Amino acid sequence: MINAPKGTNDMLPADSYKWRAVEDAAHAVAKLYNAKQIRTPVFESADLYLRSIGDSTDIVNKEMYIFEDKGGRRMALRPEGTAGAMRAFIEHNLGESLPLKTYYIESLYRYEQPQAGRYREHFQFGAEFFGSSRPEFDVELICMARDFLNKLGFKDLTLKINSIGCPECRKQYNAALREFLKQHHNEICGDCKRRSEVNPLRALDCKIPSCKELYKSAPKISDYLCDECRTHNESVLSGLDANNVKYVFDGNLVRGLDYYTRTVFEFEYGSLAVMGGGRYDGMCEQLGGKPTPCVGFGSGIERLIAAAEKSGIEFEMPRPTVFVAAQCDAARTECRVLVGELRKKSVSAECDLMGKSLKAQFKYADKQKFKYVITIGESELTGDTYIVKNMDDGSTETVLKNDISDKISGLVLRSIL
Ligand code: HAM
């Protein structure tokens, strides 16, 4: 037997409604904010990610799925969604009318050590807003993130936010952080020793507990922000206050990708981030486009579902409506005809496809959680009524054959309202 690759998950029929609920919430909230969906290829030129995510990040250093295609080109499975969205934005001149708000639901690939909430293939609902450096843009994006998480029913997430400044204010900060790392050279891990040379900011994102503890006393980027970055950050925070978005300012939050400037944020459930994002004003120019300030977020769907279930959120499983059971073989054609009529009225309906006995058909209808069962036997074939059985309370109702579709669609409508 061949098993699924390590670190991947099958979405099985019994769980697909949870995914559907998350995706429906994503589409609905995106519509409220006038964000339009985009879809980009699952593989791109590896250079796109090397140039945007940064060569001192774990993603680029350790986790990319890179391969040579049959034409000798170096390609990569997308490890994150922002770079592909930006490539499409530049390639299709989408900057002609700004602002532009986009969103996507897509799979991503990172060669990670699989554990709960960390997979080699995961899915994200992401949003990328192009075109404004104003703090309102950050606030608008974070409000959309908050509304999406609220729509799913979350009440106990923590929004952590920080500003990591611009390349100018980071020069001074990097020097101070490098000095700190030098002083603690013997206490930090091998990766952080390397990071202190190449890009000291990356050390703050280290997952090793002893490094994490030590960095609580490291210099904070917020103490090194230039006037413009400080004002921007203050305006973002007061905008969040005005929109009643609760947050915790976390001077150690840097995020694991190099492209961020100014605002970075994460929504956490316990210690696991269910969403992360921020501002990336330099990426467009860096990839050959016109300077275009942007903000965005990505939210891991597997982590969202796991966190939702742990916090007691129940996703509603949609139930099929009518099962039409055949009491005898002679009734099977009429069962199919009735099912067809019901479907024309947008009522979900099914009849037996396996040659099952009546008892086995009822067992199936019960297991599938059908709301109603109509049984067709000798008397229904010759008469002009059907008996509709309500599977929840066992009650029955006799309905004229001519009225059956309207009656059932009326019942469905009433149960929705
Ligand atoms: P990220 O923090 O790497 O950011 O990923 C965003 C979210 O995806 C995380 O908060 C987490 O919920 C989920 N996630 C990441 N890696 C895994 C994994 N291996 N297994 C399961 N879930 C995972 C980005 O990807 C940025 N592109 C977000 C962004 C968009 N920033 C600006 N625009």
Description:
39% of the residues lie in helices and 21% in strands. The protein is an alpha+beta fold and 417 residues long. Strands 1-5-6-11-10-9-7-8 form an 8-stranded mixed sheet. A hairpin with a 5-residue loop joins strand 15 (385-390) and strand 16. Helix 1 packs antiparallel against helix 5 (135-151) and helix 5 (135-151) packs parallel to helix 9. The chain is elongated and about 90 Å long. The model has no long low-confidence stretch (mean pLDDT 95). Residues 80-82, 110, 112, 117-119, 122, 124, 126, 128, 256, 273-278, 280, 296-300, 302-303 line the site of histidyl-adenosine monophosphate.
Could you give a short description of this structure?
The protein is α+β, with helices and mostly antiparallel strands. The protein has helices spanning 16-32, 46-53, 58-63, 82-91, 135-151, 167-183, 190-198, 209-214, 227-242, 283-286, 301-310, 332-344, 358-367, 378-382, 404-416; strands at 36-37, 43-45, 66-68, 74-77, 100-109, 121-130, 158-163, 248-249, 263-269, 272-279, 294-300, 322-326, 349-351, 372-376, 385-390, 396-400.
